[in-house]
Design brief:
Number of helices: 18
């Protein structure tokens, strides 16, 4: 018995620690978190934003739990890069986290059948109706509308913030362009589109692409591609022959309220100009001769153009200002005459020699700088030349806070044409040029009058010529400015035409009518000033340098009086009181208080070195046309992507690089 008791005690003493240990092992909690490893950065395309996607998951291991649960947040992603938090949790509730980056961009590729007409609702819930331009050419905006209707695109937002430009895209499939730094660039068949969606003609087989860009023109990755499969005719469509002759009414579409637009009868206007031509081909002054040359280059009248060209080949006009030389050089280039050697005088060298290292001519004026750009660009100068670089900076510095140049629509339009040619100029950011042009557009939109014009046919012609920079070759569609009355600039120009073909009342002076008619013909032609000028090479070793100077003969002078006079396009009004002109340096450069009064109205009718007589007023500008009241405006947004190289429409580059800033779809 003692032995049995002893063995029992021994066994018990041996087993008790093991039992206690086993109990302790089963009750100790698992406090060790899993090990989690983040996946690599992931990027995926989405057809709508916000987007969701099956991501490559993070991996996790655990000493106890063989399959920890892995989750992530967020599970819905906005455009761009999102930081995703991954969490691994084991069966005991222990968790570990890590992060990775997930990039999302919009990518839609759809095929659409485009109807001849469509209704599009803007962001203010206003419905706009668009009709096909012809039976074979429909509108890009209807292609986008069709894509939304077929659910190829989940949504599209279009703004009518600036009615004069039509609707422009602000968001696609949940991706909104930041109006302060981004825009939707528009392409057609691989090239930047020359028109906005609401004016863009499309045919079967076309491909249009909308890409999200920043103002430095970087592609941000999001893209919507629409392949035009077919055009669907509808009974409600109205068609317009795009080749309608001058004077034929053109039905308004895209929000013009059904107004019929009557373009200038160019043939009749050219006949009027020819009737005022002297036997040798000239007109009554070198100023009128030069502007008529541009009109004849824009819309060829045949024999009259040949006669004028022959005259210019041997003419030696008396020129006194830099703008005289600039205008005459443009006239020569317009008619295919080399401005360096095609006549007895070199008309480019005096312009270059007037460059002082910062600007050309009078430092208190900007029109001699603006109008230097056109002939110089066609005379072999470009962005690599110091004179162009400095001129670009000077012209930009002269822009006022309200977006205008000199407080007038005409000079703003002229400056915008010139500035639009300067993209790619070293030292000038594309975004800076884009913002400048956007502000100019806002000014012009805000000062347009109910009749579609800007107070005078001359001012309106200059603005229309600027608009042509984008709508080259298709003047029947170049009507992006629609006034509150539903009229466009071409309407105001056409209304000024008289039964004899001339612009302005027959009771006005013949000189004034020739002057205004010349402006109007170029505007109605659908061409810009640069387009009508032919290019010429800059001759080597002529004493002309890229920084200016070296002129050998007939150095031009630049006085405020003669510059104002020869550049002026100020139209006559009911009063014969002479204009009082104050030339003022842009604020950024300092202010001049020089005031110059013109000669009497009697003299001005015969001496075209003074401005045309207008109501007496103080004009804070250096320039050419009457000022307009310029209320404070916000910078508008535009849609068109376009190409502004030296030979193309400047808005093609504007919308290419700023488009969101530019509110007209030139």
């Amino acid at each position: 018995m003692k032995i049995h008791f002893f063995l029992a005690a021994l066994i018990a003493s041996t087993l008790i620690p093991f039992v206690a240990f086993a109990d302790e092992a089963t009750t100790t909690p698992d406090t060790t978190a899993p090990t989690i490893t983040a996946p690599v950065e992931q990027t995926f395309a989405a057809t709508a934003i916000p987007a969701s996607s099956l991501l490559i998951a993070a991996t996790a291991t655990d000493d106890i739990d063989s399959a920890p649960v892995v989750t992530y947040a967020p599970q819905s992603f906005q455009l761009g890069t999102t930081t995703v938090t991954w969490t691994a949790t084991d069966a005991s509730g222990n968790s570990a986290t890590t992060t990775s980056q997930v990039g999302v961009y919009l990518r839609i590729d759809a095929s659409v059948d485009v109807p001849a007409s469509c209704n599009v609702t803007d962001t203010d819930s206003v419905v706009h109706n668009y009709q096909a331009a012809s039976s074979t050419s429909y509108l890009g905006i209807c292609a986008l509308s069709a894509a939304v209707a077929s659910s190829s695109i989940s949504s599209a937002q279009l703004s009518n913030q600036f009615p004069s430009i039509g609707l422009f895209v602000t968001a696609l499939a949940g991706v909104a362009a930041d109006p302060s730094s981004q825009y939707w660039a528009l392409y057609q068949n691989g090239s930047f589109a020359s028109l906005g969606l609401s004016q863009l003609p499309i045919v079967a087989g076309d491909t249009i692409v909308l890409q999200l860009h920043d103002f430095s023109d970087n592609n941000l990755g999001s893209e919507v591609t629409l392949h035009i499969v077919s055009l669907i005719a509808t009974s409600t469509a109205t068609t317009t022959d795009d080749s309608s002759p001058s004077g034929t009414p053109v039905s308004g579409g895209g929000g013009t309220g059904g107004i019929t637009h009557y373009p200038l009868n160019i043939s009749s206007a050219l006949s009027y100009l020819a009737s005022k031509q002297n036997g040798d081909g000239s007109f009554s002054s070198s100023l009128l001769t030069d502007w008529a040359a541009l009109a004849f280059a824009a819309s060829d009248p045949g024999a009259s153009k040949t006669l004028l060209r022959n005259y210019l080949l041997s003419a030696k006009p008396a020129l006194s200002s830099i703008t005289d030389y600039e205008r005459h050089a443009m006239a020569l280039e317009a008619l295919g005459i080399d401005p360096y050697s095609g006549t007895p005088m070199d008309y480019i060298t005096p312009i270059v020699s007037a460059f002082d290292g910062t600007q050309i001519g009078d430092p208190n004026l900007d029109n001699d700088d603006i109008f230097a750009i056109f002939p110089l660009i066609r005379a072999g100068y470009g962005p690599s030349d110091t004179i162009i670089q400095k001129e670009a900076a000077f012209i930009l510095s002269a822009q006022r806070p309200d977006g205008s140049w000199d407080g007038s629509a005409d000079m703003t339009a002229a400056a915008a044409q010139a500035v639009g040619l300067l993209f790619g100029t070293p030292g000038i950011k594309s975004s800076t040029l884009g913002q400048s042009l956007g502000k100019a557009q806002a000014y012009l939109v805000s000062t347009q009058q109910a009749d579609g014009g800007w107070g005078s046919v001359d001012s309106t012609s200059w603005v229309q010529t600027m608009i042509n920079s984008t709508y080259e070759g298709d003047p029947t569609r170049a009507i992006p400015y629609t006034s509150s009355g539903g009229y466009v600039p071409g309407d105001a120009i056409a209304r000024a035409q008289q039964s004899d073909g001339g612009v302005r009342p027959a009771t006005d002076t013949a000189d004034n009518r020739v002057w205004s008619t010349s402006y109007a013909v170029t505007a109605a032609s659908g061409k810009s000033w640069l387009t009508v000028l032919q290019p010429f090479s800059r001759p080597p070793a002529q004493g002309i340098t890229s920084s200016g100077g070296g002129v050998l003969e007939n150095t031009a002078t630049s006085t405020a009086t003669s510059t104002q006079a020869t550049a002026s396009t100020t139209p006559p009004t009911a009063t014969s009181t002479p204009e009082v002109v104050a030339t003022v340096t842009p604020t950024v450069l300092g202010t001049s208080t020089t005031t110059i009064e013109t000669a009497s109205s009697t003299a001005s009718s015969t001496k075209l070195t003074t401005p045309k007589p207008v109501k007496k007023k103080s004009i804070v500008k250096k320039s050419v046309l009457p000022p307009s009241v310029a209320p404070t405006t916000s910078v508008p947004i535009t849609q068109t992507a376009a190409a502004a190289n030296v030979g193309g429409g400047f808005l093609n580059k504007i919308f290419h690089s700023i488009s969101s800033f530019f509110s007209w779809l030139f």
